Amino acid sequence: MIRKILFSIFVSFIILWFASSYLIRNRTISLIESLNSDNFKISYEDLEMYNFPFLWKVKVLAPKITFVDRLGSTEVFFKYFNFSFSLNLKNLDVDLGSYAEGTLKSGEEEIVYTFESKGPSIVKVSFDQPLYLISKQEKFERSLNKIECKVEGITGKKDKEEYFKIGNIDSSIKKETEDSRLSFKASYEGKLEVTGFRRADIDFDILFSKGDKFKKFIADKFYLKLEDSTFSMTGSAKLEQGAFPEGKFSVDIENYDAFIEKIIPDDFIISRNNFKTMIANIIQTLRKKVPEGNAKFDLEFSSDGIKIDSINLFNIKKKK
User: Fold this and answer.
1) What is the sign, positive or negative, of the torsion defined by CA atoms of 129, 131, 132, 133?
2) The whole model's pTM is what?
3) How far lies 222's CA from each of 81, 174, 225, 236, in Å?
4) How far is the CA of 273 from the CAs of 196, 197, 256, 263, in angstroms?
5) What is the mean predicted confidence (pLDDT) over 64-69?
6) DSSP label of 289
7) 227, 258 in Cβ contact below 8 A?
8) Of 47, 56, 59, residue with least CA distance to 97
9) Does the pLDDT at position 320 exceed 60?
């Protein structure tokens, strides 16, 4: 009698595990498909369920991520993605592996890079409700609670030669009521021809709000260091349909000459020299006490125009 009961429990467990695995496999496919767009696509060869009789795992075989922009396309090839699910199916860890190969295509030119990380790159994802209750693709985004990714370091190589290193990566997207908070922190070191600078540090924390007719973001912190120059900014902006953007930001730049040289591309609509002249004129007009070569000002824009402190750059207020 006891053996029959135990056998029934064992058979029921097997049926439940494989029935759940079928559901999880389909939800994983839907989750991947929901991420695809005109400029971003994930493709793969196959999916495999494994780890019986323990918690479910899905291995995505030979995944490829494709980015498309006006200049060309970039393809990143991975060996695998491993999806590990929690018992309540509200949390999952995505292991991206420790090696990837990227192909950058621009016209007839094709450049191949390899990427290696110190240990596996793990992305932690949590949902507000179990995965089996998220029935439609459009609900994945609404049910998403948090995404976290921490990687000790990534090394990029070209023709087996080290080109750059990205270290101490700490990023997250977290839902806060109806808003979303994006945080990112990392350091960079690489060859001058890759980005135009050899060393950089970035650290930002931004809150996004979205309504039916407006978008708003609040920069609690935005810090960018390019070698011996820095740019920091705090403030907020509101973008409303059919209206001029409104917002105010406090900007602080150390060694703005060097920063402009590194951040402004050669073919930008406004030349580097014009940017430098504009900032120098603003500093002279405002007569603020700042160290030589630095700049500090408030940038404000509204339906009345664009102001830098007390200077009105563009007055667009309608005449009565």
Assistant:
1) positive
2) 0.81
3) 32, 17, 10, 11
4) 17, 18, 11, 13
5) 88
6) -
7) yes
8) 59
9) no
For 110, the token pair is 């094709």
Tokens 């110190």 belong to 118
Give me the amino acid identity at 147. I
SS (H, E, C) 300-319: EEECCEEEECCEEEEECCCC
Q: Are 78 and 95 spatial neighbours (Cβ–Cβ below 8 Å)?
A: no
CB–CB of 310/299 below 8 Å? Answer: no
DSSP 219-255: EEEEEEEETTEEEEEEEEEEEETTS--EEEEEEEEES
Separation CA 86–CA 134 (nearest Å): 16
Q: Measured in whole angstroms, how far is the alpha carbon of residue 291 from the centre of its chain? A: 34
For 256, list phi and psi in degrees, rounded to 5. -65, -25
Contacts of 290 (CB under 8 A, 6+ apart): 283, 296
Question: Cβ distance 23 to 132 under 8 Å?
Answer: yes
274-281: long-range contacts (C-beta < 8 A, 24 or more apart)? 279/253
Of 127, 87, 111, 119, which Cα lies nearest the Cα of 194?
111
Amino acid at residue number 42 = I
Q: What is the pLDDT averaged over residues 247-256?
A: 93
Tokens of 219: 């920069």
Q: Which helix (H) or strand (E) holds 210?
A: strand 199-210
The two tokens of residue 316 are 């667009």
Give me the mean pLDDT over the 252-267 stretch: 90
What pLDDT sits at residue 32? 85
**Backbone torsions φ then ψ of 276, nearest 5 degrees:** -65, -45
